[in-house]
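Trying the structure run again after the queue cleared.
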Amino acid sequence: MSDDIPLSPVDHEPTVEPRFTVTEILDALKDTGRRASNAIEAGRRPGMPLSVLSNVAREAPLGSLLLALLVGIAIGRRSRR
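Done. Tokens:
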């Protein structure tokens, strides 16, 4: 004779997670791409950060390259720790 109490069948049924259809996934990807494109276009307007960065890189390409290298080194060292 065991002291274990049998569990009801409801406790043994696995939970079913919803599955997405291919069209839902494609719609989500398209929406994400559209949002990213809109954000990039907004950043390229005159006076916005992407516009300023492209102007600086156009006027001083070596300085921009040096700055990008230093930022990359700083981020790389920080991620190693």
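Residues 19-80 form one domain. Worth checking whether this holds up in the mutant runs.
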